[in-house]
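Notebook, student rotation project (T.W.).
Task set for the rotation: take a protein with a known small-molecule partner, predict the structure of the complex, and write up what can be learned from the model alone. Partner molecule chosen: NAP. Sequence and SMILES entered below by T.W., checked by me.
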Amino acid sequence: MSNALITGANRGLGLECARQLATAGHRVFLAARSLDIAQQAATTLPGDVIPVLLDVTRPGTITDAFAQIAATVDTLEILINNAGLYPSADSNPVTVPSADMVQTLLTNVAGPHTVTQTFIPLLAAARPNACIVNVSSGLGSFEYAAPPAGEFASYIGTCYATSKAALNMLTLGWSKHLALVRSPIRINAVSPGWCRTDMGGPSATRSVEQGAATLLHYAQLPPTGPTGLFFGPEGPHPW
Ligand SMILES: NC(=O)c1ccc[n+]([C@@H]2O[C@H](COP(=O)([O-])OP(=O)(O)OC[C@H]3O[C@@H](n4cnc5c(N)ncnc54)[C@H](OP(=O)(O)O)[C@@H]3O)[C@@H](O)[C@H]2O)c1
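Predicted structure of the complex:
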């Protein structure tokens, strides 16, 4: 049985990852930015699900969450940096508020970084190895976005795409450090594909169950599994 921490797990892909892991018998720390909301979400799931208050933009809640979790378990096998923000007024770089850019980078980049930094001791103690999934997006892919034939050439989301591109680079930075210190921890950026959640909307092509299954595949890699890569539903994803 693995111990898993999932941020932003009160709804959408995070909640579905928690459901699938708990159903499979793993212990899940279901994190949300309000304890009440985490508790409510946990009651909807089967198995061993422990609600945790963790707002990725409030470092004090991250250290408090670490203290709570470290008092319960000695190892963390799975960290899914799932919490994410897609500001509603993100389409036009001329008009998108600068505050939205700051909040998106705080949530989607600084958040996963601080959570990873804080939880490294528990991840390093996992045997045979721990996996970190940074939940990314095809919108963060330079190859998809860049002219002349970028798949998302007409619309990429100013703050969101920038943040996911930065998250991809953050993933590479962490993977290089972990390799240098010969850590067995695997860390990858993973796009769940376009999924029917509050963020993805009802027209999305994939179900929340499919998106979560993609994320969980890379959250349960063996020690010989890949690290420092970008994956999507079809396998390796272009940077
Ligand atoms: N759906 C898609 O098509 C799609 C595609 C590619 C990537 N993704 C990525 O998948 C991840 C999950 O997205 P989703 O589709 O499930 O979106 P969602 O339904 O909007 O859920 C987002 C989750 O993130 C949480 N969150 C936001 N800010 C937070 C903060 N500061 N601290 C902690 N939690 C925070 C939300 O909590 P509250 O309820 O408190 O707001 C919510 O639980 C995101 O990283 C997203 O970028 C989604």
